[in-house]
Design brief:
By secondary structure, this protein is mainly alpha-helical. It has 15 helices and no strands. It has helices at about 5-10, 15-35, 35-55, 60-70, 70-100, 105-115, 125-135, 140-170, 180, 185-190, 195-205, 220-245, 250-270, 280-290, 295-325. Helix 13 (about 250-270) packs antiparallel against helix 14 (about 280-290). It is globular. About 45% of the residues are buried.
Amino acid sequence: MADPKVAAPVDAAGGGGAARGAIGRWLGVLTRIAASRLVRWGFVAVAVGLAGYALASDWTAIRGALAHLGFWSVAGAFLSVLLAYAATVQVWRLLLASLGSPLPYKAAAKVLLVGQIGKYVPGSVWPVLASMELGKAHQVPRSRSASASILQMILSLITGLIVAMVTLPFVAGSLPYWWALLAVPVLLLGLYPRVLNAIIGRLLRAAGQPPPETQLTVGGLLRPMAWSVTSWLFYGLQIWILAIRLGAPPGKTALLAVGAFAFAWSVGFVVVFAPAGAGIRDVLLLVLLGPVLRAPDAAAVVLVSRALTTIADLVCAAVAARSVRPARTQ
């Protein structure tokens, strides 16, 4: 409990201490709730149910789009999504290792991929809380799991906007994407290790967790960033495979597919009230595919892409959950 003699001047200066204390208490309650086995299983059931509902609610349109695209293009797109997920696991694993808790790939996949289904519950905090509890079962301190998860989200956002910045200007013409790219210089500043370590430390203190014992370095960020960019390339490959099947020009669509998906995902991510960016990401992707596809064909690509990523979330979480047992406490 904070010393009131210390906390009072901070509160008088603007209420910052009180706000941080309230956030910390709120997150502390959520963390204690998440530690319950019954709540964990209930949370998984809710997240899976919401993901399933998202599929079922559009299934008629999705089924028509799948038939329009054909088996092999859909299979190739799905494989691309799985490869993107594999690269994302490597991002999280390398960040966790840089923070002092190396894990085998299968164990890292279980923590990240099972926790990621929490993104279907509104609010961006659920995947982080899930990774904290799942990581604890593998002897990873909660603060390190949370740090790696937050860092992975930040890196995905930054690299996604950078990928969009270096691809869309060449192929998207005057489409309204440039305004979000104004944030890239600020985000690049956030990649400076001293700034990034300070951000993570503040977030963890607000959540009532100790700061990481190990500080990130430039070398510790380069490999995760490279894998993050790789994941965007595979996500773009998914869109490219689907789009050229419907007649989009292969050359121009290659850049557009990568940049459009990265940009749409990044904007959808920051809109925290939309589970997994639902709606926001789809509309932006539909607009950005306009230069290479007719509206009905672009809609088919968007619908199938959303279905494939949702199915991949569920399949990967199920496979990862069964792939490795938690380490036993000595």
